[in-house]
Amino acid sequence: MSLALKLALSPLLVAQALLARRSVPVLPEPPGPRSGAVGIGPPLRLLVIGDSSAAGVGVQRQSQALAGPLARRVAEATGTRVHWRLLARSGVTSAQAMDLLRGDGPVHADIAIVVTGVNDVVEQVPSHRAVRAREALADELRNRCGVRHVVFAALPPVHQFPGLPRPLRWIAGADARRHDRALAEWVAGRSDVSHADWGMQLNRGVMAEDGFHPGEPAYRQCAAMLARHVVTQACMSPHGVRRA
Description:
Layout: H1 3-23, E1 35-38, E2 43-50, H2 52-55, H3 67-78, E3 81-88, H4 97-102, E4 111-115, H5 118-122, H6 127-145, E5 149-153, H7 168-187, E6 193-196, H8 216-234
């Protein structure tokens, strides 16, 4: 999306953004365990870190969200006992995810999945700064937490969010695609990180009531796709954890 068009539409975009903030319902992070173990076999430590979508906003309980179901699918596919942990908070940007990691005591994992990016778009963080924040996070995960492979989830298709009015939806969607391209280009230069594309279509039927967060069907699809990526890319990569 051209800068000239964004500037021309800026009064309307600001008005729509303010209206969306007032009218979109604020959904809580669901209750439920944020750590656990599932499966039988050699141990595999899995960390999920990120924003409201990592935290499971949009469903009633953590068992319907991302981290727990993802761990179960990875355990089934790899024949391991997955010890999983969730560090997530609504509203965090890629840079603020570092605060989650550093503020929760010792963290150790073999594989980490990072779900951030939408708040970078909302807060108008330049894509190169978001990439630098992810690079710092990946280095911290490897050097301090022992993570062998970091999976960065792609930004969702914001242009399909039913909770955003047009043209705000189109402009934010273009920004999200630009951020995701920058992320994918950076990931291509490292062997210890990877980029997991959601590859899904969003509509009212799979989204939460706010039209902005995933609903249970979307989380279920995301957990399945991320588990496949973890098995094929992270667990079998030279820097990853080989399957039992």
